[in-house]
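The aim of this short unit is practical: by the end, you should be able to scan a pair of folded records and say something sensible about each. We start with the first protein, listed as its amino acid sequence and then its structure tokens.
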Amino acid sequence: MPEVKEVANTKRKTQSKTAPTKMLVILTLALVIVMGALLFVVNSGGSTIADEGSPPIEDVPTAGDESAPVSIVEFGDYKCPGCLYWDSEIVPQLYDDYVDNGDVSFSFYNYIGFGEESLQASLAALTVHEEAPEQFWNYHHALMQQAGQEGSQVTQDMLLNIAEEHASDVDQEELENAIANEEMLHRIEDDHEVIEEYGVQATPMIMVNDKVIDDPFDYDEIQEMIDEELAAAES
């Protein structure tokens, strides 16, 4: 596996030779992620079952009841346009139909597919989760909507401004230092181990319990799978 700083260096040499160079990502997957996100590539057929079972959600940002019978996991990237679309169009429906009533939990794993900007966004989000977990999801959704916009650039000012509006309990200076010192890098590395285990090759990749949704943008398919899993849990 490539060293964190070696991979990050490849992504950001043209920006700054002295910038922090820690990141854990497989470069050969980056192009797949970009193409999948921008072109909304979807596969045909039904959902597939993961040999590894359901991804663990302990110590992972999770909305709803962690003991819910159905777990939805998103492997996503804050810079991914497809993740922005999924977050704005699919997630609100999931909250309304399943998460808010306790039937389903929703968790997020950080995939670093767009270089330094993805890394900085994830570092900021995980710091918010550590410091003010009750405000994490407000920050997460706001960051996804801004960072994933075509042509947007993740900067320190962006990350701090979003926190000021959506995670006001987080101290701005502490957040700035946490990002600069990459204090949450170990959490990103933990996420990456799971990402490798499940063979994530594009974002957003969505799992309902141990099943991978082939078309994450088809809410009917997601809903059908959730209902099947709920029925199985009740039987």
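Turning to the second protein, read its sequence before its tokens, just as you did above.
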Amino acid sequence: MMAKAKFDQIKGFVFDLDGVITDTSVYHSIAWHQLADKLGVTWTKTLEDGLKGISRMDSLEMILKAGNKENDYTQEEKVALATEKNDNYVNEIMKMTPANILPGIKSFLDELRSNGYLISLASASKNGPTVLDKLALTDYFPEIVDPATLSKGKPDPEIYVKGAELLNLKPEECIGVEDAAAGVQAINAANETSIGIGDPTILSEADINFKETAEMTLDAIKQAL
């Protein structure tokens, strides 16, 4: 695939959070597991995997279905259950420390900062600022896209377009970093250069692929472009 930009055109990086900077999916699983136990729904690996990447209310429906309880609650009660899950999740992420930063990410952020690159966060999670605070990375992300201002989710490019706008950069001056196929599609649709972290067969649409976060350095990106 043709890279969209030459290395020397790049001025900013727009990061996804989960699976790129840290891994919060484990905390989502813990919180849903706590709720399933409370509802008397058997927690299984299949259920856990099925909840990945889907919205809070859809996740709740999936758990209720798994226990044949989808008709046992009013919409209002369902909203309360979903809120309870989120409270469980927030309690879990409060336990995070800088030790939860994925390998190589801190040194990569230092490298970007010392080379004058601008950095923003494009995460659909409303808890993004809390997570950055726990990881002691808040200073690296002066600009954070507020998910409440978005009308569409990934793979729509909106979040990545906003991530570039916050840096006062054109999309083609930015590199977006993602670990999910829908995220890579969003970066590409925003006309930014995409880095996909993870399985290259799943992230085949990315302009640049790294299997692990630790492989991502400015030099490796320069080589790839």
